[in-house]
């Protein structure tokens, strides 16, 4: 009786298992059995899915004399298990292995999303063998190579620096406000951009913010297509510092705030505060002038500086990001943008 879950009408007309060779176990050894993706099993196997040795058809195999009919399936299964395996497939679930896409991300080759795309396209080689199955696990000491096609795609990715103004959101449009990416037009490109990159509408595809700025904040906003840069700036282990200039008021004091603000509260801004019951990392906080503080942070919680200031009685009047790592806002005019040059890095 058919179960009703994916059974096909022509199931009975298909060749019996002993006439289909060893494709099922070979495919299972190659992929991660725990992966939920099942739609790829219908795809015609790539040439590197097939064993290098010539496979004999069922009619070419010597007959097994004296074997009862019921033992044929067990014999085929044992033969498949004993067949030579290609490197790495027999350790996919061994201790100490991890997903190929995760390892590629940890090695800084690309983002995990990019790794999945490259794996599906067959652009990743492990110990010389092409991989095209998501979920494949490898050892950290195995050699990973990237097909030139993937390197070409990665080399064509761009990173855009915008001087965001008040009223634009960093990412998707919300509450009627336009996203900052709408500022990236040929007409709006800064004339001081000395990069050799020629603008293309393709640069707008998958261009995502790497570190947000609130709608009422201004300054340096980075949009990138490159997963390596995104991870560098906003990854969980990012060590890139970000510098902000913050104009504040203290109670009724809007001028010469520095002379009225307690020194112990300034120390709390540097270290000792918590947000959402999580202690904040140490920060560099100093007076830029009587009404303006300079913050240097190595983390980026939502509205972090504004919430830190609230905890010590300060009101933020204006907030501007002026640096991310080694890349500065500089003379980039408000509302304009430029490309990250080839000789620049965060």
Write the layout of secondary structure elements.
Layout: H1 23-30, H2 72-82, E1 98-99, H3 100-106, H4 112-120, E2 124-126, E3 129-131, E4 137-138, E5 144-146, H5 148-155, E6 159-164, E7 208-209, E8 218-224, H6 227-234, E9 242-250, H7 263-270, E10 274-275, E11 278-279, E12 284-289, E13 292-297, H8 304-311, E14 314-324, E15 327-328, E16 337-339
How would you explain this protein's 3D organization?
- It is built from eight helices and 16 strands.
- With 346 residues, it is an alpha+beta fold.
- It has two domains: 89-154, Structural Genomics Hypothetical 15.5 Kd Protein In mrcA-pckA Intergenic Region, Chain A, CATH 3.10.290; 159-339, Pseudouridine synthase, CATH 3.30.2350.
- The strands form four sheets. Strands 6, 7, 8, 9, 12, 13, 14, 15 and 16 form a nine-stranded mixed beta sheet that branches. It has a three-stranded antiparallel beta sheet with strand order 3-2-5.
- The N and C termini lie far apart (62 Å).
- Mean pLDDT is 80; it is low at 1-64 and 84-92.
- Residues 1-96 are annotated as: Disordered.
- Residues 1-30, 37-49 have a biased composition (Basic and acidic residues).
- Keywords: Isomerase, RNA-binding.
CATH architecture of the largest domain: 2-Layer Sandwich
Rounded to the nearest angstrom, the radius of gyration is 29 Å
Report the end-to-end length measured between terminal Cα atoms.
62 Å
Tell me the name of the CATH class of the largest domain.
Answer: Alpha Beta
EC number: 5.4.99.21
Catalytic activity: uridine(2604) in 23S rRNA = pseudouridine(2604) in 23S rRNA; uridine(35) in tRNA(Tyr) = pseudouridine(35) in tRNA(Tyr)
Biased composition (Basic and acidic residues): 1-30, 37-49
Keywords: Isomerase, RNA-binding
